[in-house]
Structure formats: structure tokens, C-alpha cells
């Protein structure tokens, strides 16, 4: 037991020094443009400002603001017994993807009609920028 304990400590120390030397060469990431807008709004002295930059609405007290239309939709979905809470396929809901392409490119888009458009449903925020 004692040998195992010292072995674990030894491995942690080696890991710490190896990771420290590897990470010491990593350069800082560039400033996030979305966050810079958030910080600019936060630092703006104007008393009647409203920060809509991050897609997450907040009350004047800084608490999450849930829009009334969202509450109604949640109630409707909560009462819909056919709505399951299972995982979506990795590329999202097929009907949502198809209709998103039509909404974006138009119902009469040749690219949509010829199946030359690929859409995926993904998380919002910065993850979508990675894709």
C-alpha cells in the first residue's frame, strides 16, 4: 500500500513537471470578439443600455430572462405526450435541417432541390463557430 501511494505521488510529480514544460510554450489565445462586445457593454457608462450580444438575455438584476413565448412553448411541449426527451442524431433533427436550408436559401433554391446543401443542427454559441 505504501509503495503504491509513493508511486502515485511520483507519477503526479512527473506529470506536473512534464505538463508545465509543455504548456509553458503555449501562446495565449486571441481575444474572443464576442466577449469583447460583452465587456464593452459592461464598461459602458450609459444607464439605458441593454446587452443583447451573447444571446442570453438577463434582467436588470442580472438573472436569466425567460421570454414569455419560451414559457408558453415549454408548457405546450410539457403537455405533449408524443414529445420524447431522447437524444437527437449526431447531425440533429432531419426536418429542422431541411426546413432551415429552405428558410436560408429559399423554397425555390436549386441547390436545395438538387440535394447540394448539407445542414446540421448544433449547439449555439461558440461551438457553432468551430464547425
Automatic annotation (TrEMBL):
Ranges where the Aminotransferase class I/classII large domain occurs: 49-125
InterPro entries cross-referenced by the UniProt entry: Aminotransferase_I/II_large, Asp_trans, PyrdxlP-dep_Trfase, PyrdxlP-dep_Trfase_small
One Pfam family of this chain: Aminotran_1_2
Record GO biological process: amino acid metabolic process
Lineage: Eukaryota, Viridiplantae, Streptophyta, Embryophyta, Tracheophyta
Stretches that traverse the bilayer: none
Molecular-function annotations in GO: L-aspartate:2-oxoglutarate aminotransferase activity; pyridoxal phosphate binding
Database matches in Gene3D superfamilies: Aspartate Aminotransferase, domain 1
Cofactor(s) demanded: pyridoxal 5'-phosphate
GO cellular component: mitochondrion
Cross-referenced SUPFAM superfamilies: PLP-dependent transferases
Keywords, comma-separated and alphabetical: Aminotransferase, Pyridoxal phosphate, Transferase
Protein name per UniProt: Aminotransferase class I/classII large domain-containing protein
Subunit structure: Homodimer.
